[in-house]
């Protein structure tokens, strides 16, 4: 999430480095993202199938108030670190009230000074591991581990220790509710930022990004979903997140699923094609007739033409506009949030890409119309669509292994 007071936000997060990853052909079901600020750099570790032995399955205690267990790396005063910890606890409880979770979610969080290129960022979070599972439309997609665990699958790729990696910027002036003081015009409510970032970690995140045009100052001409290679440098394919299953591009007044664009991009290179360099791969895709689909998605993502259509029977029936107004495209901000201009002043404020100083959770809830939770109905329907159970939607769509 970005701070609003500084104008440098476009500069941040645009300089992704080359991706290096590989997977054995029979063990390709895991994608690890060690740095939440740079999800285009990920590993595909050896990730064998695990069979859940029912006798060892530990039932989570009834009435648990907070499903989030946070390991906090905090190198500031004990008083500051305690406030951070308490804010995490409050955010974990809030999400645990809204979602019907079954399994605990482990968060690896760091509170630290950010580097110069990241200095406009309040915080960042990303699934620590995503697993490839088969969605109800038979397409294989990436599911964040926090979500995959809730499905109680009999077989699944091996889980890693943490579900979510998160970082928070210690250089901002933070406001904590527990201080019982009036917020200053330059302060940010830490609780709102944690809530926002944890929701990303739960899977409110698109895979569509500038993977093939990552050099500094390179003009961005198209977007693709994530992709992977096998260990022997054979191309595996483009692969979306479960979040992307519900995205649509508006083109010539028609709504076209983003999954269609992924399918088209998968025709740009035959599977198992061997590439000696990543540049060779990039050139092949960008010179293919299918690159026009990457261009179309970029156009939509920078002209307010990307929608999230919630799954049937979820809390919200209408299409939700995602953040697609930023031009040029901003990795980490575009597509991965709800539209700021449309929803900043509604009950869905928590998932806009910027937070403004001087605004507390209480103020934002009141301005949004006093919804019962800081997690608004559109945000809840996104989480329900990707597979989280809620009181209103206890049986979400489940993937298969
Ligand atoms: Zn965000």
Structure, briefly:
It comes from Diversispora epigaea. With 401 residues, the protein is of the alpha/beta class. The chain has helices at residues 78-98, 145-148, 190-202, 258-265, 278-286, 291-301, 340-343, 361-367, 377-386, and strands spanning 2-3, 30-32, 49-51, 68-74, 105-112, 123-127, 129-134, 140-144, 155-157, 164-169, 174-175, 188-189, 226-229, 235-239, 247-251, 254-257, 306-308, 320-321, 354-355.
Describe the model.
The protein has helices spanning about 80-100, 145-150, 190-200, 260-265, 280-285, 290-300, 340-345, 360-365, 375-385; strands at about 1-5, 30, 50, 70-75, 105-110, 125, 130-135, 140-145, 155, 165-170, 175, 190, 225-230, 235-240, 245-250, 255, 305-310, 320, 355. The protein is α/β, with parallel strands linked by helices. The protein has nine helices and 19 strands. It is globular. Helix 1 crosses helix 3. It is about 20% helix and about 20% strand. The protein has one domain (about 1-210, about 305-385). The protein has a four-stranded mixed β-sheet, with helices on one face. Strands 16-15-17-18 form a four-stranded antiparallel β-sheet. The protein has a three-stranded antiparallel β-sheet with strand order 2-7-8. Strand 15 (about 245-250) and strand 16 (about 255) form a beta hairpin. The longest helix is centred in the first third of the chain and has 21 residues, at about 80-100. The chain binds zinc ion. Zinc ion binds near residues 196 and 353.
């Amino acid at each position: 999430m970005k701070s609003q007071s500084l104008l440098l936000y476009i500069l941040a997060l645009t300089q992704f480095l080359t991706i290096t990853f590989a997977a054995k052909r029979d063990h390709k079901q895991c994608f690890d993202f060690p740095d939440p600020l740079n999800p285009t750099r990920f590993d595909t570790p050896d990730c064998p199938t695990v069979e859940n032995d029912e006798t060892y399955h530990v039932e989570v205690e009834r009435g648990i108030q907070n499903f989030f267990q946070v390991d906090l790396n905090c190198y500031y005063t004990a008083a500051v670190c305690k406030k951070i910890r308490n804010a995490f606890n409050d955010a974990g409880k809030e999400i645990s009230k809204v979602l019907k979770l079954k399994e605990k979610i482990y968060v690896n969080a760091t509170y630290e000074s950010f580097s110069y290129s990241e200095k406009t960022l309040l915080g960042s979070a990303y699934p620590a591991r995503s697993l490839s599972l088969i969605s109800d439309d038979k397409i294989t997609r990436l599911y964040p581990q926090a979500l995959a665990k809730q499905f109680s699958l009999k077989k699944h790729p091996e889980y890693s220790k943490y579900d979510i990696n998160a970082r928070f910027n210690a250089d901002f002036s933070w406001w904590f509710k527990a201080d019982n003081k009036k917020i200053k015009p330059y302060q940010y409510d830490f609780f709102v930022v944690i809530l926002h970032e944890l929701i990303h970690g739960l899977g409110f995140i698109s895979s569509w990004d500038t993977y093939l045009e990552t050099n500094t100052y390179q003009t961005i001409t198209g977007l693709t979903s994530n992709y992977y290679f096998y260990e022997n440098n054979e191309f595996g394919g483009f692969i979306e997140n479960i979040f992307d299953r519900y995205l649509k591009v508006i083109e010539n007044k028609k709504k076209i699923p983003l999954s269609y664009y992924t399918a088209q991009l998968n025709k740009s290179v035959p599977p198992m094609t061997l590439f000696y360099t990543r540049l060779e791969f990039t050139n092949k895709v960008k010179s293919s007739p299918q690159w026009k689909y990457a261009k179309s998605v970029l156009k939509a993502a920078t002209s307010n033409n990307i929608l999230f259509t919630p799954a049937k029977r979820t809390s919200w029936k209408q299409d939700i506009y995602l953040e697609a107004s930023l031009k040029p495209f901003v990795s980490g901000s575009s597509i991965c949030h709800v539209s700021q201009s449309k929803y900043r002043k509604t009950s869905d404020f928590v998932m806009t890409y910027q937070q403004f100083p001087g605004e507390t959770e209480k103020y934002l809830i009141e301005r949004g119309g006093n919804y019962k939770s800081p997690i608004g109905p559109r945000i809840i329907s996104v989480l329900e669509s990707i597979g989280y159970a809620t009181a209103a939607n206890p049986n979400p769509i489940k993937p298969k292994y």
